[in-house]
């Protein structure tokens, strides 16, 4: 098999280079389209997050450079307290870069995952405070003819004061444009129906729909539509009625549920006229004050009603077996829409959902019997002072979302490294989790066909397998926890130590079996 070679930041030729006013000092994140570095302007002593689009990516898709430039120009024109600040845009030896304000904190997706790990939901008051700031940013952009098109929790940063900052305008579209660039259509779990059908059909209400999905997730702990593939999820947004949120959280007031379902209407004109109006209706449903003092239009110099949208009375929802005849635009090579009618019949409606649920239960039962026969799964940790590898002998993927590695005994909720950092929340059969220190040799871990997730840890703070921590304390062991329960205790290693192994049995759960069934 082909080894997935991890990106080694220590060999990154851009680190140390001067891009515009910013010298790149370290890698913060690496994605499929761009890398984000920490940079410093030595003249102003100002740090920044520098997003770099490399020449190799633009050669594969000629529209990327245009989208990148459009993002820079669009965001630079938006001066709002809850929208990321752009410092500089430029080009360096074929690489395009965008210097932005460096936000110290985390994003909303990480916070929701943290809360889910501890079996809790976000406080309603806090959730509304965060989303009303996002709503204010969206209304400000919409009035200026800009639609974000990729509103999701990971694009909402939370600084140290819990202030929300909207970022990643890479899919932004101006309402005056007749066409859209490239084949980027948003994120399936948060995408509006009209945007899933055709990206250039996005309107301000498309962003409001995505905001409603986020609120749904804040209040219930999950998004309204989920599936094994992006196609299934997007088709559900197009044709399926969303499950009423009160079925997942009965504490939600009826008035709040009504407003969420209104914002999740299939036709944009049935939704709220502005993001601010949507959040104010939710606060009213909870009995909170909705005056301008509680929902400020930060930095807005035009009223949201400058482009009013009429909202007629809702029409009756479609019947259970109404076929979806349109082909999603994000599937350019998909078969004609008529071929999707039969699968959709099984995916939608009460009978379809019952059949799918019964099938899932039967599948889990069969997998449980198979797992009982194979005698469990052994996980092996192999580590030294600079590298840490986790491998397993199962023939199915391990769901590591609830996994935690903890050094020290200072609280149930602490984790030095959590499984939700792993790509896809899973470690497939024959693949490994690999963590390593910057500058260490990036060799293929023994016993791994491929590497599912390779991560260079930026500091020793997360070297949970080391005896010494950043405060100079020594720890003889670290704990392996699953769903906050200790499933193994492993010895730590000291500086200069050779390979050490720690083996334990993986707790079989339906989450693992569900991951096995996914294509």
Descriptive tags:
Phosphorylase Kinase, domain 1; six-stranded antiparallel beta sheet; disordered C terminus; alpha+beta; five-stranded mixed beta sheet; 3 domains; 519 residues; 28% helix
Q: Could you give a quick summary of the protein structure above?
A:
It is built from twelve helices and 22 strands.
Question: What report would you give on this structure?
Answer:
With 519 residues, this protein is an alpha+beta fold. The protein has three domains: 9-101, Phosphorylase Kinase, domain 1, CATH 3.30.200.20; 105-315, Transferase(Phosphotransferase), domain 1 (Orthogonal Bundle), CATH 1.10.510; 375-517, no CATH class. It has twelve helices and 22 strands. It has helices at residues 55-60, 63-76, 108-117, 124-143, 193-197, 204-220, 230-239, 254-263, 275-285, 341-347, 349-374, 510-517; strands spanning 18-19, 22-30, 35-41, 46-53, 86-92, 95-101, 105-107, 146-147, 156-159, 164-166, 173-174, 377-383, 387-392, 398-399, 403-407, 417-418, 426-427, 431-436, 450-456, 477-482, 485-491, 500-506. Strands 1-2-3-4-6-5 form a six-stranded antiparallel beta sheet. It has a five-stranded mixed beta sheet with strand order 19-18-13-12-22, with no helix packed on it. β12 (377-383) and β13 form a beta hairpin. α4 packs antiparallel against α9 (275-285) and α11 (349-374) crosses α12 (510-517).
């Amino acid at each position: 098999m082909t080894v997935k070679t991890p990106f080694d930041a220590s060999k990154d030729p851009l680190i140390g280079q001067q891009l515009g006013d910013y010298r790149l000092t370290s890698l913060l994140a690496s994605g499929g389209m761009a890398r984000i570095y920490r940079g410093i302007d030595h003249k102003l002593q100002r740090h920044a997050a520098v997003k770099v689009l490399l020449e190799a990516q633009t050669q594969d898709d000629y529209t990327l450079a245009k989208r990148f430039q459009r993002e820079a120009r669009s965001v630079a024109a938006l001066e709002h307290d809850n929208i990321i600040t752009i410092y500089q845009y430029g080009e360096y030896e074929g690489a395009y870069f965008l210097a932005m304000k460096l936000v110290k904190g985390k994003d909303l997706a990480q916070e929701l995952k943290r809360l889910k790990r501890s079996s809790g939901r976000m406080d309603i008051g806090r959730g509304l405070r965060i989303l009303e700031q996002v709503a204010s940013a969206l209304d400000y952009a919409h009035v200026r003819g800009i639609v974000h098109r990729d509103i999701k929790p990971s694009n909402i940063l939370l600084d140290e004061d819990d202030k929300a900052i909207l970022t990643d305008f890479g899919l932004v579209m101006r309402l005056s444009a007749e066409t859209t660039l490239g084949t980027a259509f948003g994120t399936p779990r948060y995408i509006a129906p009209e945007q899933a059908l055709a990206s250039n059909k996005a309107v301000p209400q498309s962003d409001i729909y995505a905001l409603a999905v986020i609120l749904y997730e804040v209040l219930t702990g999950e998004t309204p539509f989920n599936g094994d593939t992006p196609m299934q999820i997007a088709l559900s947004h197009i044709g399926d009625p969303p499950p009423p949120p009160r079925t997942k959280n009965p504490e939600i007031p009826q008035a709040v549920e009504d407003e969420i379902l209104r914002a999740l209407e299939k036709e944009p004109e049935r939704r709220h006229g502005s993001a601010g109006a949507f959040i104010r209706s939710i606060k009213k449903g909870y009995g909170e004050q909705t005056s301008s003092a509680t929902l400020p239009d930060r930095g807005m110099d035009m009223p949201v009603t400058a482009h009013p949208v009429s909202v007629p009375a809702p029409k009756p929802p479609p019947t259970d077996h109404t076929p979806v005849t349109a082909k999603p635009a994000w599937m350019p090579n998909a078969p004609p829409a008529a071929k999707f009618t039969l699968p959709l019949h099984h995916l939608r409606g009460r009978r379809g959902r019952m059949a799918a649920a019964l099938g899932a239960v039967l599948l889990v039962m069969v997998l449980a019997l198979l797992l009982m026969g194979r005698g469990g799964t052994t996980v092996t940790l192999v580590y030294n002072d600079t590298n840490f590898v986790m491998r397993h002998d199962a023939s199915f993927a391990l769901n590591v979302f609830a996994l935690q590695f903890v050094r020290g005994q200072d609280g149930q909720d602490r984790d030095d490294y959590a499984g939700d950092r792993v790509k896809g929340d899973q470690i497939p059969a024959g693949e490994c989790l690999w963590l390593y220190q910057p500058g260490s040799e990036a060799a293929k871990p023994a016993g791994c066909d491929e590497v599912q997730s390779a991560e260079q840890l930026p500091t020793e703070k997360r070297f949970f397998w080391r005896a010494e921590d950043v405060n100079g304390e020594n720890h003889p062991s670290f704990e392996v926890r699953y769903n906050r329960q200790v499933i193994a205790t492993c010895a730590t290693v000291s500086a200069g130590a050779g390979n050490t192994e720690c083996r334990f049995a993986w707790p079989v759960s339906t989450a693992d079996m569900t991951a096995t069934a996914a294509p």
